[in-house]
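lol ok so funny story. i was supposed to be doing the assay writeup but got distracted and ended up predicting the structure for this chain instead. priorities right. anyway since i did it might as well share w the group, maybe its usefull for someone
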Amino acid sequence: MAVSGKGRRKIIVGGRTYLWWVGHDDPECLSGSDTYLMVVSADGRFGVRFFLGQLAERSFLIVLGREFHGLRDAGGPWIRVLCPHWVGMSAVTPAVVRAVIEWCSSDRPLVRVDYRGNIV
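and the output, tada:
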């Protein structure tokens, strides 16, 4: 399913088009903010959300799409995985978005966490 590009920025990484935006929603526990970065592929198969203001040692992102490198069960209930601390409360830039996408599509160990950032 295609994703509407209205009001969203476009970035191309590895020949694939992604849309990204910063939004506000109910905060995840311990995120410290209701501001998040959302990145989705133009075809809607890849999608992740990263809340800004998380503690560096417990930073995680939420896998929302059914395509995520290293997760065969992506696309069901939300999956949270530990991730690098790309950005605190500072401005989200295209370089940060590119780093998120590249990390998500790389070979790396995945550590699942609960909504509090505790390893499960």
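The chain has one helix and seven strands. Residues 94-104 form the longest helix (11 residues).
back to the writeup now i swear
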